[in-house]
Design goal:
Bound molecules: S-adenosylmethionine, iron/sulfur cluster
Strand content: 15-25%
Largest sheet: 12 strands, mixed
Oligomer: single chain
Number of helices: 10
Order of helices and strands: EEEHEHEHEHHEHEHEEEEEEHHH
CATH topology: TIM Barrel
Distance between the termini: 31 Å
Length: about 325
Amino acid sequence: MTTGLVDRFGRVATDLRVSLTDRCNLRCRYCMPAEGLAWMANARVLTTAELCRLLTIAVRDLGITVVRFTGGEPLLRADLGAVIAHAAGLQPRPELALTTNGVSLARRASDLRAAGLDRVNVSLDTVDRTAYLEVTRRDRLDDVLAGLRAAQAAGLTPVKVNAVLGPGRVGDAVPLLELCLEAGYELRIIEQMPLDAGHTWERSSMVTADAVLAALATRFQLTPADEPRGSAPAERFVVDGGPGTVGVIASVTRPFCGDCDRVRLTADGKIRTCLFSEEETDLMSLLRSGADDTAIAGTWRAAMLGKQAGHGIDDPTFLQPTRPMSAIGG
Ligand code: SAM
Ligand code: SF4
């Protein structure tokens, strides 16, 4: 019988975020320093076979129904199609999604769709070329826009755009939403969290969800979407009477930890029950010491008991996790 991933507060994790690599071809200021980071040695990263085995255990034995591949930049892994094809063959078939910076999506979208990928979230924080270069430290805006178009043409829908607006950049929200409405992408604006490698995040200068909504209201009429939110982090609004919508993810100012249904697997085979966990559970050592599937599933279940009630960003005792976002998997 399948026994799911239940924590001490009765929450059940059914959504697995798998980080495929900590490497990236961009250097977004809220995530990575200009010089990059000390990447994990290849020998420490889960192999294709190890990843596929953990996915099988997660879906078959632990009740995972949604798998999202992320990183670092997941498109940097040459075996992404093979891992997706494996996951698509599992029973019950999980929903398969990808979070990517979109830089090399144009040439991969149709193959990934054929492998079984259902949908993508593409990170794009501004449609202004100079601002894009400033935020990501790379001049790749045109490639990302081409990636978005290719994703939609390949049927990786709904195509979602994830935007994090850095300090002073709330004005980027309006042109981003204009682009998304015109092209048929779903925009989701995410509050910046204290997960940057440089530990420079400050509560006082972050762009809040309220500030985003106020900026959007200068140009659009927003009506709260009439739908149960469940465990979805985005609060959705219908724009100008529909059909377009926009979501805001107020991770810091309106945390949704009480409804969290997520668990994370890092590229080096560690389970994290929260982005902000101080603890990790090492499945890689188990895998490489010959443990059987039952032992791995048992350790994964036990790891859930360490999941905290909330991320505590607003607590005076809050400590930013040692791993930056790129090494956890966003
Ligand atoms: N490289 C891929 C990308 O950028 O989409 C996947 C990994 S990235 C870490 C996943 C998501 O996390 C992106 O949408 C990114 O904007 C977001 N992210 C990164 N650092 C963040 C931070 N400090 N606060 C909030 N979101 C962040
Ligand atoms: Fe790379 Fe994504 Fe981090 Fe940007 S947010 S540096 S694209 S991992």
